[in-house]
């Protein structure tokens, strides 16, 4: 895959909104190590060949297709051609998809790439240039279209499991209110009125990750916000509820595929 070329790589982020993150990035060679995050990663390659390992196979994204990486699926990334690769991506919280689809199992695109034209058009609205602000109503309409296009592209899931969507949603809200303290599954289950193991199963089915991973990811969201505001690594780590900077750095790298120091440097590129 070659060595890192962080001196010319760059990353831009649009101002985050609730449940949705938009980025545009360029990598000239090596992109990022194997990692996973608890959101959908959906987007388009704009230039070059975007190569990555996904579910045990090597995949190559070209302009004209839609990447759909499922929550908590491990993937990496590197340039598949000498020109490097540029892409735009949105990271969508599964909770948003759930709110639109009404508590169905999350749509899953098996190979991480789709040629579905409806999905491509639905995604295109949300991955337009980052300097083009999204009208709030346009964004909500686009998310509605995206959720249903995802469900269509994934096909019909004939196996139906019994689950409690309302209890899982209460657990998700409970986590948001307890980011900086230690919580237990028993405490969460009591709050939601649900058996702890049934709650854990439902949470994974509906939101694509475990309660602990979800808590860790929300802490990392706060870390990235603080780092973007100029806070030091140690201050961001402690404020977000991590035990120390090293703990945060390990979680950051395993989630985003690069250390937080490199991520901060790339944000400064033009």
UniProtKB/TrEMBL annotation:
It comes from the Bacteria. It holds the Pfam family AraC_binding. Regulatory protein of the TOL plasmid xyl operons. XylS activates the xylXYZLTEGFJQKIH operon required for the degradation of toluene, m-xylene and p-xylene. The keyword Transferase does not apply. Residues 169-266 form the HTH araC/xylS-type domain. Keywords: DNA-binding, Transcription, Transcription regulation. This is Transcriptional regulator, AraC family. One of its GO terms (molecular function) is DNA-binding transcription factor activity. SMART domains: HTH_ARAC. Signal peptide: none annotated.
């Amino acid at each position: 895959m070659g060595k890192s070329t962080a001196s010319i790589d760059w990353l831009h982020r649009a101002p985050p909104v609730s449940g949705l993150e938009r980025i545009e990035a360029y990598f000239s060679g090596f992109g990022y190590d194997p990692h996973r995050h608890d959101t959908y990663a959906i987007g388009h390659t704009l230039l070059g060949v975007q190569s990555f390992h996904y579910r045990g196979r090597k995949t190559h994204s070209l302009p004209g297709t839609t990447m759909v990486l499922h929550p908590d699926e491990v993937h990496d990334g590197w340039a598949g051609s000498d020109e490097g690769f540029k892409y735009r991506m949105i990271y969508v919280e599964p909770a948003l998809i759930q709110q639109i689809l009404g508590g169905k199992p999350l749509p899953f695109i098996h190979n991480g790439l789709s040629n579905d034209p409806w999905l491509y058009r639905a995604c295109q609205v949300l991955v337009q240039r980052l300097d083009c602000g999204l009208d709030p109503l346009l964004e909500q309409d686009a998310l509605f279209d995206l959720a249903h296009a995802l469900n269509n592209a994934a096909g019909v899931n004939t196996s139906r499991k019994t689950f409690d969507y309302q209890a899982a949603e209460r657990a998700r809200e409970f986590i948001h209110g307890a980011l900086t303290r230690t919580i237990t599954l028993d405490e969460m289950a009591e709050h939601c009125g649900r058996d702890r193991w049934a709650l854990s199963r439902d949470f994974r089915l509906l939101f694509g990750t475990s309660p602990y991973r979800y808590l860790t990811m929300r802490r990392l969201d706060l870390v990235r916000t603080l780092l973007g505001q100029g806070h030091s690594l140690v201050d961001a780590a402690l404020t977000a509820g991590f035990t120390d900077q090293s703990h945060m750095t390990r979680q950051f790298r395993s989630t985003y595929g690069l250390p937080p120091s490199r991520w901060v440097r790339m944000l400064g590129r033009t």
